[in-house]
Amino acid sequence: MSLRKENKLIMILNNSLLDLASPSSLSYFWNFGSLLGVFLMVQIASGLFLSFHFSGDVNLSFDSVIHMMRDVNYGWMLRVIHANGASMFFLLMYIHIGRGLYYGSYRFDKVWLSGVSILLLSMATAFLGYVLPWGQMSFWAATVITNLLSAVPYVGVMLVEWMWGGFAVGNPTLTRFFAFHFLLPFVILFFVILHLFFLHEKGSSNPLGLSSVYDKIFFHPYYSIKDIFGFAFFFVFFLFICFLFPYIFMDVENFISSNPLVTPVHIQPEWYFLFAYTILRSISSKIGGVIALVMSVVILYFLPFFLKHRFRSTLFYYFMKFMYWVFVVNWMLLTWIGACVVEYPYMGLGMMFSFLYFMMFMVFWMIYGIQDFMIL
Description:
Layout: H1 8-18, E1 21-23, H2 32-51, H3 61-70, H4 75-102, H5 109-131, H6 136-147, H7 156-164, H8 171-202, E2 216-218, H9 224-244, H10 274-281, H11 286-298, H12 303-306, H13 318-338, H14 346-375
Antiparallel strand pairs: 1-2
């Protein structure tokens, strides 16, 4: 008997990576989970090395970033990999979630709920990291977003002051954000382990959405080869971005040191938050906008409880295929509008697409119910 089946520790790794029973019909859309795990490790490693040279002080943070870029050996590469790695991580995560929506992966409730928790924690971590360089956009993004907590009844102002560590965004704010930005990736790592535990307990979904208990194959070599190919392809794309277009996802305002007396012409978050930002600014009521902003992501938690259609995959729901791609296009339009100035016609379009974003979940529930009834 080989060592990988005798040693208990190696046996656990073997059963999780090599001899893992997997459905026989998985496509390349199932590569993105493993890619996310690799990029999480890249973010943790690059962030750890960047923290060696970063100063969490409002008088030093901007200069410490410049010092990394100019004076530290390969500091520019670490910073570019970390900044663009966040964008790649969210790109992969949105594709991963989109695949889950299309193939009904939310029917595995524990796997789905832990995955949505990872998304929320990743958003919080990315926002905290965006503030750390303490450029113009960092400072004003921190001011605008933290002020949203004031919409919470009774305790809102107290929460904002606690978040700031005072009565305005300042040094205590930056110190707290740096501490939480360093710690949260390890919380995400814990949830990733939990996510994998539930995944191996329930098993993967598949393109047909059918039970594959009687038709499974070993993960290695059938899917490990696919994963290696996916890693190679995506890392070539990632390095192409890092070395040829390193600042394509960065805002020009953030290359200017923060100035509380000068407000940027157009305050906007990173691209992966723009869909939620559009929803926030489409509602005139502050508390209504905050609730809509939170619900734009939290609504994913409710899918396992409301979408209980007979077949997991949309393969057997023909009209749902069309509606799914309408939803994807609507999400892209929300992202585009979030980067546009707050004026006509973008405000009107943002309100319309925000309404459609939430209505689409109701439409999914209705269409699945109607088509299940027709199948019966």
